[in-house]
Amino acid sequence: MASKWQAAVASALILSALVVPAAEAASYTVQKGDTLTKIAKEHEVTVEQLKQWNNLKADAIFINQKLVVTDGAVKANKVAVVEKMATHTVKKGDTLASIAQKNNMTVAQLKELNKLQSDVIYINQKLQINKVSPSKPQEATVEAPVITTSPKADGQAVYNQVIALAHELIGTPYVFAGNTIEGFDCSGFVKYVYSNAGLNISRKSSLDYYLQDTTAVEQPMPGDVVFFKNTYIPNISHMGIYIGEDQFIHAGTTGVEISKVTHSYWAERLVGYKRFNGIE
Fold first, then answer.
1. How far is C-alpha 261 from the chain's CA centre?
2. Which domains does the chain have, with CATH numbers?
3. Which residues belong to any copy of the LysM domain (predicted)?
4. What is the DSSP letter of 140?
5. What's the predicted TM-score (pTM) here?
6. What are the helix (H) ranges across the chain?
């Protein structure tokens, strides 16, 4: 009898060792400080998957809430990922957007990881980053959205004001980081013009506007913005306002002026045309 009892116990222990971890892996109890982004990252899933599996209509979660964090089909097809923590030292010209882009992160993830309350960073600042190396290149290709229509009446009204105001500012001197009529840099000029034309946008760099606030257009129209790379720093570093016929108004090195995108200097640095997300 003893041997049968011992065998039964042994079998039960083996079964529990096999079953319990699978059950635990399928759910997670929300802890203090957790966010959907953090939980998704830890379990190698997306926020949208978490919301779908748990019937969540918003990103709000609460302590001790039980969340399903895996799906059978997803788990079976998951690619192994090796992740390690690394450090990036901020250099001249760096922004959170450029650092995040280089390290396959979002600005929100970078800010959360480093407990940053704003987008302000400084030279020689040490930032933690996540280096992710897939075991094999099996990433799904996601096509970026492209706008195929012209702005509606309200958007066109904003564009009319943008173009008129931009022309009025021709000759305003160039000032690094300037965003007033005393002087502009390229993104400061764009921010000033669009804000005064009625579009609510924050002051950002050309790269930040490109990555965070604009969508590509299939056919540019006067009033859209145009981006360039590798001007005074690597990556996207300059922008202007397209006015048609291959021309754009921008804060150049000597001041606000009209240039041609077909000029050899700009043509070889042209990235593309986009539209602010607030224009409909």
1. 26
2. 2-77 (3.10.350.10), 81-134 (3.10.350.10), 146-276 (3.90.1720.10)
3. 26-69, 86-129
4. P
5. 0.55
6. 2-25, 36-42, 47-53, 72-77, 96-102, 107-113, 153-168, 186-196, 206-208, 264-267
- b/e code 78-115 from CB counts within 10 Å (16+ = b): eeeeeeeeeebebeeebbbbbbbbebebebebbbebee
Stretch among 22-26, 47-51, 239-243 having the lowest mean pLDDT: 22-26
The secondary structure of the chain in percent helix, strand, coil, rounded to multiples of 5, reads 35, 25, 40
Structural tokens at position 90 = 């901020």
* Residues classed as catalytic: 186, 238, 250
Q: How far apart are CA 220 and CA 95, in angstroms?
A: 27
Strand (E) or helix (H) holding 71? none
Q: Looking at the chain, how many residues does it have? A: 280
Paired residues of 270 in beta bridges: 228
pLDDT recorded at residue 143: 57
Q: Are 165 and 193 in contact (CB under 8 A)?
A: yes
Q: Answer yes or no: are the C-beta atoms of 121 and 95 closer than 8 Å.
A: yes
Q: What is the DSSP string of 11-24?
A: HHHHHHHHHHHHHH
Q: How many CB atoms lie within 10 A of CB 17?
A: 9
Q: Which two tokens stand for residue 16?
A: 């529990």
